[in-house]
Amino acid sequence: MGRHPLSLLIVILSLMLLPYGYTWKEYRIRRSIDLSFTNPLISDTKLPADLVPSGYSLFLHPVLEKSTFAGRVNITMMCAKSTNQITLHAHHDLTVDELDLEVVKMADDSKIPIRRVGRVPKKPLLEIYFHDSLTVGVSYELRLKFNGNIWENVEGIFEGKYKQQANAAGTDTDTEGVIEAEEHSYISTYFRPHHARRVFPCFDEPAYKVPFNVSIVRPATHHVLFNTELERTEELTSSDSKHVIDVFKRTPPMSTFTFGFLISDLQQVPSMSDEKDDERKKPAIRIWARRDFQKNVADVEQRVKLALKKLQDYWGVELPLEKLDVVALPGFSYVKPADNWGLIVFKESELMRGYYNLAQELVYQWLGSWITPHWWSDAHVNKAIAGFLSADTAIKIDGGDEFEGKYPMTILYSIYYEFSKRYPHSRITGQKHETTCSKTELVLRMLNYTLGEDTFRRGMQKFIQHREYKTFYGDDVWEALTKQAHLDQRLCESATVNDVVNSWITKDRIPMVNVIRSYGNRSATVTQKLYLRERPHDVLDKDKMLWWIPLVVVTQDRLNFGNMSAVKWMKQVREITLEELPGSDEFIIVNPEEVGPFPVNYDERNWNLLATFLQKEESRTTIPVYTRAKLLHDAWNLAYAGELSFGTAFNMTLFMKYERNHLVWNPVFTLIDHIGRHIDMSAVHKKFEMYVRTLLTPLYEELVSNQQENEEMWKANLRSLAKNFLCRAGYKPCIEEAQRAFNKWMDSPDPDAGNPVANQYICPVFKWGTREEWEFGLQRVINFPESRVKSERTYLLKTLAGCPSQPFKIDRLLNIMVLEDNGNFTDNDISLIFKMLSGGSSGYTTLFNFLKNNWDAIKLRFKNRESLWDNMINSATGLFTTQEGYDMVSQLYVQHQGEFGTAEHIIEKSLKNIKEETKWSDENLPVIEKWLDNFLASNGVADQKFLG
Predict the structure, then answer these.
(1) pLDDT the model gives residue 39
(2) Is-contact 691 679, C-beta < 8 A?
(3) What is the DSSP letter of 134?
(4) Would you say the pTM of this structure is higher than 0.70?
(5) Chain-centre distance of CA 860, in angstroms?
(6) Which stretch of DSSP H or E encloses residue 361?
(7) SS3 call for 224
(8) 65 CB-contact burial (10 Å; exposed 0-12 / middle 13-18 / buried 19+)
(9) Which of 489, 504, 426, 493 has its CA nearest to residue 458?
């Protein structure tokens, strides 16, 4: 039998699964302080501290018709250190009038003679030099003019357009009486993290927090939303009645990146609140949207107020805002909202979600706008606090319905996978900082548990006190928590939260904890070590890494999951002892509910006690869902890492026969994939396939039989995951359904006009269907019309290569693309096919044989296409996991030694990796096979329901 989709999950469910089976990343990337942009700024050279700004007076005149803007700015500053120059940020896209520029002494308005003005090459800096040094302690004002372009990309000032149905009454219609859509334009800003310099010369660093006096020109048909309330409107000129000037109230001290405005004709959404109550409450909440969209955001005001109230209660202090404008901006393409002080701009779709996104941006009003990280190196702490509090707020309001219970498991399991690699992040710096931030958020959650929610909250309140309109460093947070923890006696005086946190966030790693019980004296030896899944475990300094680890323990005789206090802390020590544990017939659980971000291993007896307990219906549900998921997840991943016998890990799956909670099931799909990929070429694979069919079939059939119209979303998602898997596993009812749908496409008079088949059906047809069906799909790719959406062709191409288990289908595709050099396939198409074929043994084995049998012809085809050659060698040789595979690749290497060219190092690396994977197979396959034999002998397998 060919390659089973157990080992293709990473490909075929790629749009449905992350490491934990949930697109939590959609939430994670919507951060106001974007680490992928702020990370490069950490090492950025700071402006000289010789001059300190004290205020801006800014006039802006955007001209929508020309996509340009002009303006002038007066910057007041105090000389803190003797200097003969002023250095400001000014982007190269910004034109500064260097001739009409002056600096005056504030005391007497006398002009300071300027020697020269210049721009710094390759740096966004404007320098103004004087003949004489400025006087320390004296205030000066810089006055200058500038102009620039309004861009479509979301940086600095950008423009956007949207269409809206004209008012029905009194409007023109077309010949059929249909109301025509009118085009509307707007201008908005996105200054995070350092785009203010694109709009006006300034001190564009977060630590400089000063007031702004702002005036903005707008069309008379539009209005301006700004950080503060409108103070008055003035004429632009007596001859221009189409434009006016809006003058706004002076802002509080704020950083340049929190500056923002929106010029539009959006309308305020009618309030659903009692107006009298509204007048007494600050800030006044106003929601803005296009007229056609207002009904979609009618409840946003109430959601904002509720989230704001929860956060105010948490911080113990209200935001000093007169108003807060929340905008649903049509055509706003950026994934992150623009969260300016008092003005938050969302994509329309983002305001239709639950509470998390709203709470996150509201947190940034406190941490970001009101209180600001001193430098970009503290941005990850700011972001981690926002993430934790946003999730906490959403959960407290409605149980976190939008997460479907998956917070924080998705990000936690992602952290487990990333930090257990030999080379985390593949040295991708942006990803490193994102995962470091996620880990910091999980450490905050750990502290919230172990210090106690009350102590943690009071510590956060202590941190925010007396920092209004000021900046903070990351250590300020930890010091405030330490003081409160000592005061409440939740942490011993010799320990600090700084010590705990730094042991976690300064390492690109996580620990694992081993608990070996001594049943005779009711104690356990607890050790910690670096957690590594990838082999070989040859990480430098792994034996020197130690963490502060809280040991929260639940025992079978006291299943109390409400008290998450640590019975002991591992204070960066290798080993400690737990005492007064239950008897030899009762289990213990360490780190329940994933209190800390680390997996836990036990001795075999404790694991088997847990496995037995979980199989009993009356006792299983006494262990909460998160802990059940954790036990299953830890067991499989520790086995995969070589820390636990696979026999013990498989025992922990036996309770899944009765388990129906999606939080426990979701990681199972990825865990199955990890093992399935590894044993794909072995004789054990068929048995593993039968085991998984036995596991999944009852789940799916029960979900189908109990399907309801208004069921919870998680049921639909879980059913879809199970169905997709079983379809590709050859589940007959699904294959028949898929072929019926596919045949309608084949029988259509113009099959190239569009694809009427749901994506879920295509892969099973290409895997289990006829040669004719697969060939039909190939012709649809070859004849794909230019007018259709290209992503549809890409999906077909992926499934044509990634789904079939029959080598003849893959060979046919490779012959057309590579040997015949068919002009319908680009180099990108070929690279995509190679990548898809690396997803399973049927694919990469067929590709390997194709390479071996057509070596000379392929070498000729790829003579000047080194990237394709390298990709092919990598996909054809890099995925084998057995001695047989090693022998095949080794023979090819010897046979063509010296002919691999740019791919020489690739095949050498492949051989090294296969050797390592072969060791894993030799150690684990016999154990897996023995367990599967026993399981299959005592469990009925519904193989009659499957093809193949």
Answers:
(1) 58
(2) no
(3) P
(4) yes
(5) 42
(6) helix 356-366
(7) strand
(8) exposed
(9) 489
